[in-house]
Specification:
There is one protein chain. Helix 5 packs parallel to helix 6 and helix 9 crosses helix 11. The protein starts with 14 loop residues before the first strand and ends with a helix. It has 13 helices and 14 strands. By secondary structure, the protein is of the alpha/beta class. The protein has a single domain, classed as NAD(P)-binding Rossmann-like Domain (Rossmann fold, 3-Layer(aba) Sandwich), CATH 3.40.50.
């Protein structure tokens, strides 16, 4: 299979400015873009975790890597002007709910002003055709717990992280209406609200998969908070495929696709945290879990969070590829290889991308068939 030909061959020899490229999802996106033949310009703070997928895959030598802070608008715009990108994908963020309780100002500055800085820098670019801003499924005003959120639902957020993402959505809408829709040629901006992402290479604290992997590898019990909470779990490549396909569609249209989009799994992947942990233990082959001391002060987190992806299915012909068991299997396979000291982690990551594309092709998804 010639992977450069998928996504209508839009990314070959194109310049993609990717913020947050040193993070978990950013690293996966950088690898995929490289496979598609794109020239990736990365702008991010140093890798946020140790270990780090970015370091494990030695991506610093594979892409055009720059250390920077999206809160610094001048340095961001300077690199954007120099790079003159065809497309912008904005991932850089303070991405943890619990950390936002500990560092609310840093979270608000990074997620709100960082987004504004990306949009302000975009205003002064002539070549850039499309810009994708990653927000969050937690940007919704989650007041009706059992309801799957649609893109037309109100923005909100109980905690600093969620509210910062809701605010980012409002800022994007304001810039789109005030500046980009008035500009000729039209600069296209869309936002992505993705479900809870699972996959190898995530080492962030207070996320269920990294916490589980650390515990299992050290033969400790997995401490499971909010075991009955339901989330829209999906493999890391699911929203990334949606982002890449959306750029293709934006690139071929005027204003039709310049909107907000939910990228999430089918209903069968909306399961509890407890079910995820049980599947992880079964796949790992050993391990136990326990609930934390009920007396511990636990910050608020929504019990139910579901996404309605009807819009993406109808208008983009996009849907998720892997079920929850396939998602867990791919995730645990990556971590097992890492702990077995594999020297081929980049090759394994590429293989997982190729396998995902082949599976998408078998179910005849448009982006994989192109």
């Amino acid at each position: 299979m010639e992977i450069k030909k998928i996504f209508n061959n839009v990314f070959e020899n194109k310049v993609v400015f990717l913020t947050g490229h040193t993070g978990f999802q950013g690293s996966w996106m950088a690898v995929w873009l490289e496979l598609l033949g794109a020239k990736v310009i990365g702008f991010s703070q140093p890798p946020p975790t140790k270990p780090s997928m970015f370091k494990i895959l030695n991506l610093e030598k594979r892409i055009n890597h720059h250390i920077g802070d999206i809160r610094n608008q001048k340095s961001l715009e300077k690199l954007m002007q120099k790079s003159n990108p065809d497309f912008i994908i904005h991932f850089a963020a303070q991405a943890l709910v619990r950390n936002s309780y500990e560092n609310p100002i840093d979270t608000l500055e990074t997620n709100i002003m960082g987004t504004a800085n990306v949009l302000e820098s975009l205003r002064n670019l002539d070549n850039t055709k499309s810009c994708i801003i990653m927000t969050s499924d937690k940007s919704y005003e989650n007041t009706i717990n059992t309801k799957a959120h649609k893109e037309t639902d109100a923005m909100g957020g109980f905690d600093p992280y969620s509210s910062s993402k809701g605010a980012s959505e409002l800022i994007v809408s304001s810039y789109r209406n005030s500046f980009f829709n008035q500009k000729i040629p039209l600069q296209k901006v869309s936002t992505i609200r993705a479900g809870n992402v699972l996959g190898g290479g995530d080492w962030a604290k207070d996320r269920i998969i990294p916490d589980s992997i650390f515990a299992l590898n050290t033969k400790k019990k997995i401490l499971v908070r909010n075991q009955k909470s339901i989330r829209p779990w999906q493999f890391v490549l699911e929203p990334l495929s949606g982002i890449l396909w959306l750029i293709v569609k934006m690139n071929s249209s005027t204003k039709k696709f310049n909107e907000s989009w939910n990228f999430g799994p089918d209903k069968k992947n909306h399961v509890t945290v407890k079910e995820i942990v049980q599947k992880v233990i079964k796949n790992w082959g050993s391990g136990t879990w326990s609930a934390p001391n009920s007396k511990l002060n636990q910050p608020h987190e929504s019990k139910y969070l579901k996404l309605d992806t009807t819009k993406a299915k109808m208008n983009l012909k996009w849907k998720s590829v892997y079920n929850i068991d396939e998602t867990i299997n791919e995730t645990i396979s990556w971590y097992k290889s890492y702990y077995e000291k594999s020297s081929l982690m980049y090759d394994l990551t590429v293989d997982q991308i190729m396998n995902y594309v082949e599976t998408a092709k078998k179910v005849k998804l448009n982006w994989a068939m192109s």
